[in-house]
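Exam revision sheet. Question 4 asks you to relate a sequence to its structure. Input first:
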Amino acid sequence: GGGSWLDWSSFRGFSNLYYSGLSGLCSERDFKVECGGFSNRPVYSLKPVPDTSLLVTSGPPDTSLQVWQVSAEDSDVIKSVSTISTENGTGQTWAKIATISARAPWVLHGSRLNNIQITEVESRKNSASSTTPHSEELSGLAFLDANTLLLCCARGGLCLADVRQPQSPLEAASVPWAPCGERWCMGVGRGPQGSDSQPIACLSSRGRLTLTDIRKISESLASAKCKVPSPSSDAEFLCVSWAPALEGCLAVSGFDGTVHVYDAQSWDSSGGEAEPIFVHKGHAFGPGSSRNPPLVTVHMWHPQKPRTLLSAASDGSLHVWDWVQSCGKCG
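Answer key, structure tokens:
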């Protein structure tokens, strides 16, 4: 299609929803807003539901979700259509969410290991729920496929769950590479076609990056220390993501007003400091940045343009930018 969802997670205070035509970006990186809507609560996470015209959002003050519908072509309105309520959601941090269209359009959501649910988006029927007594806070979750979930605890634990075995224990795997006292987030990449391998990057509030694989999540395959301020002043917005079309490339943000791009192909298990191959500093030079430096709250890679990224910051700025390839780096 001619547009892309600005699929932001953790955009603090964001209360407007926009669909923007990104496929034909001009050199000035202008946006063409095609439709929009208004939310009466902050939006910290937004996910489109594949193969539908629906969106799901979450944000404080509780773990409930809001479902939105993009109107037909003759309208420019994004309409609120329903709310997915959760038991004991009041007083909990906002829900992390992931979506998939498999047997039905589903949303995976929760803020802790013991309140994870899978809900059918259209009927709001609960399809599966966590039965674990463990209450570790979640920093991220993902559908690996229609049956397999990957969960990341804020303290660094990773957990695989099978929705076909709802009574199986749900407990975070022991990860010796995750030191205590740090907050962690994860980014899941794509493995080689035809392989069951899927790379996972885990980022800590002190700038530690650990690479592992879905086949053995307790084993660190490589590690490095990012050249970022340490520790993060607001670890809630840590973000790490794999480039979808550049092997071994990933991006990191959430420490200050910059986004760092790294080539992880040569990393080993030594944990030494890694040099970024590119640093986007544009958010740090906005109006008022000298008095109140902005914090990059989220970034994502463009799905079709290999070296184009989108990033948003706490001052409301939204950037689309390219980075220049150095010789021999990232493909």
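Marking note for examiners. DSSP finds no helices and 24 strands in the chain.
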